[in-house]
Design a protein that fits this description.
The protein is 3% helix and 46% strand. By secondary structure, it is mainly beta.
């Protein structure tokens, strides 16, 4: 069983920054692919970013290009999402997810690749 706990969400003005954290349980955290997804009201949950066990990362380039950075600290069992130059359209509940099995650069963006999900943290960007 893997437990994921997100933190770091909040209310920020457009152009501001936030850093989300996701603390994971499990002795083999370093072998998981970790992802961030988000869900705005009335919309489906969408991919934001993911990072493989080796540190290779991929992003939803259309929505977060050049603004968001995903990273991980395996010693702390934590994955981060640094979000800069936030826009009102970034407003959503952000979810952390863990994939226990092998993923490719393509499958890292798929919800179906992930086995465990956190409870989410709200990010609200005001204009």
């Amino acid at each position: 069983q893997v437990q994921l706990v997100e933190s770091g969400g909040g209310l920020v003005q457009a152009g501001g920054s936030l850093r989300l954290s996701c603390a994971a349980s499990g002795r083999t955290f370093s072998s998981y692919t970790m992802g961030w997804f988000r869900q705005a009201p009335g919309k489906e949950r969408e991919f934001v970013a993911a990072i493989s066990w080796s540190g290779g990362s991929t992003y939803d380039k259309d929505s977060v290009k050049g603004r968001f950075t995903i990273s991980r600290d395996n010693a702390k069992n934590t994955v981060y999402l640094q979000m800069n130059t936030l826009k009102p359209e970034d407003t959503a509940v952000y979810y952390c997810a863990a994939a226990l099995f092998y993923t490719t650069a393509q499958t890292m963006a798929l919800r179906s690749a992930y086995n465990y999900w956190g409870q989410g943290t709200q990010v609200t960007v005001s204009s």
